[in-house]
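Quick note —
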Amino acid sequence: MRWSNQELGVENADALPGLAKLNNLVRTVCTPEFAGMTFHEVLAKSALNKLPVQSQVPMEWTINPYRGCSHACAYCFARPTHTYLDLDGGDDFDRQIIVKVNVAEVLRKELGRPSWQRHAVALGTNTDPYQRAEGRYALMPGIIGALADTGTPFSILTKGTLLRRDLPLLADAASRVPVDIAMSIAVYDDELQQSVEPGTPTTKARLATVTAVRDAGLDCSVFMMPILPFLTDTIAHLDEALRQAKAAGATGVVHSALHLKPGVKEWYFLWLGREHPELLPKYRAMYRGTYAPKEYRAWLAERVAPLVRRHGLHRTRTSPNTGGVLSRSDPEPTLF
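Predicted structure written out below.
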């Protein structure tokens, strides 16, 4: 099937059972351009997501133009969100992508309401807004325009080098509202990077994007998240990572240890058993719950802190739960 010969508003008999239940599914698309992937285009009823009070995060609002992500990161914490449509958080999350094709139009209406208080909005705290599909759907220019035109500050966290396409828009937006950009670059070993996050741009390409953001006159933080125990937590790896981030022009850095909630742990352990089976016993002992032990996290923080200082970087303000970079208009995060 090709993009042009699939009608809108026609139920697709080939749609997966969970998706067939949606009353806002307009079409399901497969194309040779994205071999092995399926796009389920939906009409969003809302664009802004208000985080519940019990989440205890400073950021209140997010936008997710896509659900599922072709980056295919084995450790992605968003994988369980796919199960709400009877899709699994493993292979389906990587290949069955929900696309909110009208998200920019819906967002502009929501931001135009008298009740909108111009709270900071975060993008990229769930799935990546600049994953490969964005090259086809181009949803972000409309989102950026709607936010800037209504005086709404926003932040973007991405692994996608497609961000460069929108740098003129982002520079213009930053002249009107606070805009915070962060590039997620967790792994600085090329072989490991292509193994654990096979759908992402290379580390080199992402570092070049950091430089491009800086050349456009914008700040850009680097997220070294997650740090993988026994794989990327050596002093040599951390030191080299920070050196490269600084050389690329990063204005700040964020780091945290891997966490594995149910639905993610199983998928990551499958990858680990295939690629590094010798580490499985250590991980099973370490991750009895979602988070690495407090002792490990304290050890890691003590290891990273002097390296951050050595390279003249500083810790970027982030939400402790979502990992999203906080806009300059957000309050300081509450750690817990």
